[in-house]
Design a protein that fits this description.
The chain is of the alpha/beta class. Helix content is 38%, strand content 26%. It is globular, with a radius of gyration of 17 Å.
């Protein structure tokens, strides 16, 4: 579904992605782990077209999207739940979800709304509440729900556990699994919480300073000594 081939991305003269190769197959959950600053979020943003890859190729569902503007990429069936949530704090929860639905057929709005409320029942109770008054966990749920309103075939999740209490983190990862299993949505997950991410994922990649250094199934990477030392046991 998504193929990233030899992608190099720069911020000015700084090379953030150094020939990244990555593949996400239909129906998979694929996770990308790595230290802060490794280039994980940059890869997701590059897939979305901001910034654009300077060289290499990004193919989504058979279409080369490397040079497409972001709005066309989003309308092709990709949605992103960004790091830091970035909801509209002065808008109500329902208005935030309406913003997420702009790329979808309005005829399906009510159906899509009920679908996201089935995943996030607490949001249904908060429909008229302003986004900025929600708890951190509720804001993260809203971020994911807003991205689902566009009916994506590929969902990009950037650090969904960031800043959340352990109990809420477990709840968020459980919902991510349910979204994948119940809707068949393909998911590319960027996450620093390697343990939860690799337990959830069918396959995973490890990124170090802009390059992929390891790949394997979630179980294989969980058992890998280098991965355990660097990301699961406090690092060296």
């Amino acid at each position: 579904m998504l193929v990233v081939e030899g992608v190099h991305t720069f911020y000015g003269h700084i090379e953030a992605l150094k020939g990244v190769d990555l593949e996400v197959k239909p129906g998979e959950i694929v996770t990308l782990i790595g230290a802060n600053g490794a280039g994980k979020s940059t890869l997701l943003m590059t897939v979305c077209g901001t910034p654009q890859a300077q060289s290499g190729r990004i193919v989504f569902d058979g279409q080369d999207i490397t040079r497409l503007p972001t709005h066309q990429i989003m309308r092709s069936g990709i949605a992103q739940a960004p790091e830091g949530r970035r909801i509209f704090p002065r808008m109500t929860l329902l208005e935030n979800l309406q913003m997420g639905a702009l790329a979808a057929d309005p005829a399906h709005f009510s159906e899509d709304l009920e679908r996201v409320f089935a995943f996030f029942p607490i949001l249904k109770e908060r429909q008229t509440q302003r986004g900025g008054t929600l708890s951190g966990g509720e804001q993260q749920m809203l971020t994911i729900a807003r991205s689902l309103m566009s009916r994506p075939r590929l969902l990009l999740l950037d650090e969904p556990s960031l800043g959340l209490a352990p109990m809420i983190v477990r709840q968020i990862f459980k919902i991510i699994r349910e979204i994948n299993e119940r809707t068949g949505t393909t998911i590319l997950l960027v996450e620093q919480n390697a343990y939860h991410a690799l337990r959830l994922a069918h396959r995973g990649y490890v990124m170090v300073t802009g390059a992929i250094t390891l790949t394997g199934s979630g179980a294989e990477l969980l058992a890998n000594r280098e991965v355990r030392a660097a990301y699961l046991e406090g690092g060296h």
